[in-house]
Amino acid sequence: MAIQENADSVIETPAPTAWPMIMALGLALAFAGLVTSIAVSMVGFILTIAGAVGWFGEVLPAEHRDTVRVEPALEAIVPAKIGVDYLRVGELGNRAILPLEIYPYSAGVKGGIAGGVVMAVLAVLQGIALHGSPWYTVNILAATAMADLANANTATLSSFIPQAFVVALIIHACASILVGLLYGVMLPMFPRYPAFWAAIVAPLLWTGLLWSSLSVINPLLDARIEWRWFILCQIAFGAVAGFVVNLTERVHTLQHLPFAVRTGIEAPGLGEKREDQD
What is the pLDDT of residues 3-22, one digit of tens each? Predict the structure, then answer.
């Protein structure tokens, strides 16, 4: 064989395999199913077993290897005497830092508040249209933190309960602001079609996550939720929050600057002035 004749010109390397990643995905799904659904755990268990068997088959009883031909060096590598132009303190444009510009945190807060208001209006309209009461959806949301509403009947959920209103307002406000901040951080990472990511992709992903875990978080809401209205509310929130965030002017990131510069202890270019003085 050609490999045996030129044994000095080839080396053996471990053969590439995707089984470890499949096993890791299976373990992640198996544990995720503990808080979502038994079906997720079953899929994760199957992937874990398949990944382990496939991985062990790659190394036992003999490790799978690939032969790589070593190309002879054509000429000696001579170090270049050209100097390296280092980035100066305060310079932007380092392509290793992504994104280079982000929205300020205030944009995410404003977007979350605006989207939360629109979502609350739609939720109230849902309660009026389907149950004849604007407080029905409010009380169901409050049931997440109020155990006495877990087994409440329709008449109770349709009535105004001051404590439930305050609890629902706090839950909705905190969730809206946190998701708005997430929009402000994530949208600069998707430079193309931000409206599509904000109004379609993110709401659908969020809805899918809640659909798989809502039976654990809020069983009452899981039993009485109207998913078509819920998806409509999520899309409205994402569209409004993304629109408000996208209107805000971006600011440059500062992660590439030294800690002393970011905290204001030193100013950009201070090191050069000290060297000139010396």
Answer: 444 556 777 777 788 888 98
pLDDT in tens, 175-209: 888 888 888 777 777 766 777 777 788 788 877 87
Measured distance CA(19)–CA(97) in Å, rounded: 32
HEC per residue, the chain: CHHHHCHHHEEEEECCCCHHHHHHHHHHHHHHCCCCCHHHHHHHHHHHHHHHHHHHHHHCCCCCEEEEECCCCCCCCCCCCCCCCCCCCCCCCCCCCCCCEECCHHHHHHHHHHHHHHHHHHHHHHHHHHHCCCCHHHHHHHCCCCHHHCCCCHHHHCCCCHHHHHHHHHHHHHHHHHHHHHHHHHHHHCCCCHHHHHHHHHHHHHHHHHHHHHHHHCHHHHHHCCHHHHHHHHHHHHHHHHHHHHHCCCEECCCCCCHHHHCCCCCCCHHHHHHHHC
Q: Are 210 and 152 a contacting pair, CB within 8 Å?
A: no
Q: How far is CA 74 from CA 71, 78, 159, 265, in A?
A: 9, 12, 85, 52
* CATH class held by domain 9-69: mainly alpha
Domains of the chain by residue range = 9-69, 101-252
